[in-house]
């Protein structure tokens, strides 16, 4: 079975203009995304993430090397049937309503009639826009709503792989958590997801594998479970222990040759506090 | 990789996807309202032809045809350039093209869809302008026939000769007002404006901004209207460099004067259908040629 994404020795150089030479956006990149993986493609701005995605979408042709999706060359239009793409900033037609947007992209993906209508309704419910807001033009949508409709259009033709470029950018914490949950649901359904995000905490929560690019080159690549833990350190969270007993444990650790580096009360996250407060206040959207 | 890119299967072109993009483009142009404003202005401009009454009735009809067909041609070209020039640059500026081409859509389908969306708007505009033009002609016909009858009724003459004279005068008016040659002129205007839209599409396929596309299109259309000068120069004696330049202008730019039938109509000349059809075929071939140029530029453009 072929990998979901296979990039071999990929290089992309952009011409800067007459007598100004070239700029290397991606340099000899090798990358493999396995089927069913949530893969985090990370890197600072200008590191080559967007160019790599554009090459995978067939929008830009590589200078050398190759890229394939499920074994098919990525520049072939048929390969696009396997791909769902959510761009970084919501690039949609502002004169269309949410429902018309899904209809438009659904028709382009080859859907029609009742199948398309049902799929639009299903996705509007999935992204939480089936409450009347789908009848509004996108011009009046908030950034979070645009991301939701963007995710729905990316899923319209039930693609095998999703390219999500900053899917939670501009989305409030509640929406952000919903999108994160959606990514995990899609993963459970066997979809492969290529995720670009600067929200590293979120990447850590959902990704199985990450790759970090810098100046077009791969500087880190590996499974989250191998990369994230500090292997020579351990953390234990206790409950119902007195300070005297805690002191005894610390002494015991020292006796066994270990060092206690940090003690204290674990803090709740700001996200958790926010979500609890919002949940308590009830729903905020009106159709 | 570059060699692989040339594997392009024309059989994969989907009329359904072209239709979807064309209808979306039409919606875009209608909802943006700029073209609607231009169209309303065109209709008002054509309607203003009824104001001019200080000529003989034959001269009035000639004037109305000349004025209205000229206005339809000019406003049609303005609508073709304004409507088409914004299509690709707007997609690139708003980056909607990335989302669109991430779906299974060929760049050729994108170009054809966008172009046909623009053509649909031009068809709509030309139909509305033609209806207004017909309305102006019929209003003028009714006014002149009524005036003729009132004048003779006022003179009190009811003889058979008078009646026959009135009928012959009415026939002269009808001959001018119900001139089938007008349809040929409108057909040629249509072919001309869809050709102008194709030229604009070809320019916008490599241009980086809408303003540049509009300016370049105006320059190109002006050169196309000056083709007769280039053709005359071609026959004269000149050095090889100039000759090559003039030859290039003649080959690249279509002769848009071929589509102007208003002058012939004003002169009372008739254009055989065979000539009209040949001119239409010339326009359509040039349109296809410019669309191929647009596609080739766009196909190899880095987005």
Notable traits:
heterodimer; A: 287 residues; alpha/beta; six-stranded mixed beta sheet; 22% strand; globular; B: 303 residues; 14 helices; 79% helix; disordered N terminus
Could you describe the 3D structure shown?
The complex is a heterodimer of chains A (287) and B (303). Chain A has 287 residues and is α/β, with parallel strands linked by helices. Chain A has helices at residues 49-56, 98-108, 113-126, 143-155, 173-188, 200-206, 224-227, 243-255, 270-281; strands spanning 5-15, 22-33, 38-42, 64-69, 72-73, 83-86, 161-165, 192-196, 209-214, 217-223. The termini of chain A are far apart. Chain B has 303 residues and is mainly α. Helix content of chain B is 79%, strand content 0%. In chain B, helix 3 (34-47) packs parallel to helix 7 (107-155), helix 4 runs parallel beside helix 9 (181-204) and helix 11 (227-235) packs antiparallel against helix 12. The two termini of chain B are 17 Å apart. Chains A and B meet through strand 4 and helix 2 of A and helix 1, helix 2 and helix 6 of B.
Strand-helix topology:
The complex is a heterodimer of chains A (287) and B (303).
Chain A: E1 5-15, E2 22-33, E3 38-42, H1 49-56, E4 64-69, E5 72-73, E6 83-86, H2 98-108, H3 113-126, H4 143-155, E7 161-165, H5 173-188, E8 192-196, H6 200-206, E9 209-214, E10 217-223, H7 224-227, H8 243-255, H9 270-281
Helix pairs in contact in A: 2-3, 3-4
Chain B: H1 2-5, H2 15-32, H3 34-47, H4 57-85, H5 87-94, H6 96-101, H7 107-155, H8 160-177, H9 181-204, H10 210-225, H11 227-235, H12 240-252, H13 262-266, H14 273-299
Helix pairs in contact in B: 2-7, 3-4, 3-7, 4-7, 4-8, 4-9, 7-8, 7-9, 7-14, 9-10, 9-14, 11-12
């Amino acid at each position: 079975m072929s990998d979901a994404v296979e990039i071999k020795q990929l290089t992309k150089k952009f011409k800067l203009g007459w007598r100004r030479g070239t700029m290397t956006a991606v340099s000899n990149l090798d990358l493999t995304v396995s089927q069913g993986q949530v893969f985090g493609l990370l890197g600072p701005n200008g590191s080559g993430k967007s160019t790599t995605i554009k090459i995978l979408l067939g929008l830009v042709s590589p200078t050398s090397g190759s890229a394939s999706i499920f074994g098919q060359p990525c520049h072939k239009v048929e390969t696009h049937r396997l791909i769902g793409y959510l761009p970084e900033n919501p690039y949609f037609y502002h004169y269309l309503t949410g429902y018309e947007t899904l209809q438009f992209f659904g028709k382009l993906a080859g859907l029609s009639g009742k199948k398309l209508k049902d799929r639009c309704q299903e996705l509007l419910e999935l992204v939480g826009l089936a409450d009347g807001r789908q009848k509004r033009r996108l011009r009046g949508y908030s950034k979070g709503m645009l991301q939701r409709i963007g995710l729905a259009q990316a899923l319209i033709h039930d693609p095998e792989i999703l390219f999500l470029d900053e899917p939670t950018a501009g989305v409030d914490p509640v929406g952000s958590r919903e999108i994160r949950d959606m990514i995990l649901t899609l993963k459970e359904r066997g979809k492969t997801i290529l995720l670009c995000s600067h929200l590293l905490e979120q990447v850590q929560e959902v990704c199985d594998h990450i790759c970090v690019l810098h100046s077009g080159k791969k500087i880190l690549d590996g499974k989250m479970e191998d990369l994230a833990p500090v292997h020579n350190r351990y953390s234990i969270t206790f409950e119902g222990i007195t300070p005297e007993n805690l002191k005894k444990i610390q002494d015991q650790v020292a006796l066994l040759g270990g060092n206690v580096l940090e003690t204290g009360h674990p803090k709740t996250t700001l996200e958790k506090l926010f979500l609890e407060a919002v949940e308590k206040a009830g729903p905020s959207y009106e159709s | 990789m570059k060699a692989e890119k040339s594997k392009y299967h024309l059989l994969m072109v989907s009329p359904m996807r072209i239709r979807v993009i064309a209808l979306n483009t039409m919606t875009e142009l209608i909802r943006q309202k700029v073209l609607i404003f231009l169209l309303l202005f065109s209709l008002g401009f054509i309607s203003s032809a009824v104001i001019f009454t200080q000529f003989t009735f034959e001269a009035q009809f000639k004037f109305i045809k000349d004025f209205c067909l000229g206005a339809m041609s000019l406003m049609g070209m303005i609508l073709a350039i304004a409507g088409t020039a914004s299509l690709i640059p707007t997609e690139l500026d708003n980056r909607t093209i990335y989302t669109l081409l991430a779906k299974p859509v060929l760049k050729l389908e994108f170009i054809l869809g966008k172009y046909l969306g623009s053509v649909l708007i031009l068809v709509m505009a030309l139909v509305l302008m033609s209806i207004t033009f017909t309305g102006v002609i019929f209003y003028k016909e009714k006014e002149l026939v009524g005036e003729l009858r009132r004048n003779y009724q006022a003179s009190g003459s009811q003889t058979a000769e008078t009646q026959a004279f009135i009928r012959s005068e009415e026939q002269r008016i009808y001959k001018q007002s119900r001139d089938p040659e007008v349809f040929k002129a409108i057909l040629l205007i249509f072919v001309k404006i869809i050709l102008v839209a194709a030229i604009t599409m070809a320019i916008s396929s490599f241009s980086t901004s809408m303003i540049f596309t509009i300016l370049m299109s105006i320059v190109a259309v002006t050169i196309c209207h000056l083709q007769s000068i280039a053709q005359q120069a071609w026959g004269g004696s000149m050095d090889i460099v100039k000759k090559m330049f003039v030859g290039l202008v003649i080959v690249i730019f279509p002769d848009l004067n071929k589509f102007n039938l208003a002058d012939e109509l004003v002169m009372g000349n008739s254009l055989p259908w065979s000539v009209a059809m040949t001119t239409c075929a010339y326009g359509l071939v040039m349109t296809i040629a410019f669309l191929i140029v647009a596609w080739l530029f766009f196909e190899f453009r880095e987005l």
